[in-house]
Amino acid sequence: MLGRNLIRLFAEVVKSEGLVVRMHSPTWTIFHNSTEVETIIFESLDGGRGIVNSQFMVFQTTLNPGVIEIHLKGGAIKKIIHIGGVLQKNTDNSVDCALFEAFTKEDIDWESLKKSDCFSQEPVGDSSTEGDYLRKLGHSLRDDIVNSSASLS
């Protein structure tokens, strides 16, 4: 994974050269002043599920790692896994959303993922297997980044 290799490279530079390096995850702007969003379901900071829809006038939150589900006008649904992000509902009913280290279903090699050690245990609960894999992938990715970035100090 490119992100992991970059973090390791920066960690080596910091150790050998004594440089102070501040790392930021790549950000994907999902929406900027978009009026196409009907509802957004996300992992809230208290561990539950949060919902933003037309009933919220103004809203801003920092997202927990996990899956964000975006329902667009016309019925299309996007599911994106991320390790964090920012979500904002504006006064004009538009939505801004930026995610860190974000992936869609198409970005993931599901066959390799299912064979990896990270998912050797069966998913727990009554939720879909795909959703559990996405959540585990998000937490695993976040842990990799946290562990790698610890080398920077």
Kindly summarize this structure in a few lines:
By secondary structure, the protein is of the alpha+beta class. It has a domain at 26-110 and 128-136: ATP Synthase, domain 1.
Mind explaining what this structure looks like?
With 153 residues, this protein is α+β, with helices and mostly antiparallel strands. The chain has a domain at 26-110 and 128-136: ATP Synthase, domain 1 (Sandwich), CATH 2.60.15. The protein is built from three helices and nine strands; from the N terminus they run αβββββββββαα. The chain has helices at residues 2-17, 110-115, 129-149; strands at 27-34, 37-43, 49-52, 59-63, 66-72, 77-82, 84-89, 95-100, 103-104. A five-stranded antiparallel beta sheet has the order 3-2-5-6-9. α1 (2-17) packs parallel to α3. The longest helix is centred in the last third of the chain and has 21 residues, at 129-149. The protein is globular. It starts with a helix and ends with a helix. 19% of the residues are buried. Residues 18-24 have low confidence and may be disordered.
Structural class: alpha+beta
What's the number of extended β-strand segments?
9
Query: Mean of the pLDDT scores?
Result: 71
**CATH class designation of the domain at 26-110 and 128-136:** Mainly Beta
- Our estimate of the beta-strand percent is 25-35%
* Helical content class: 25-40%
CATH superfamily of the domain at 26-110 and 128-136: F0F1 ATP synthase delta/epsilon subunit, N-terminal
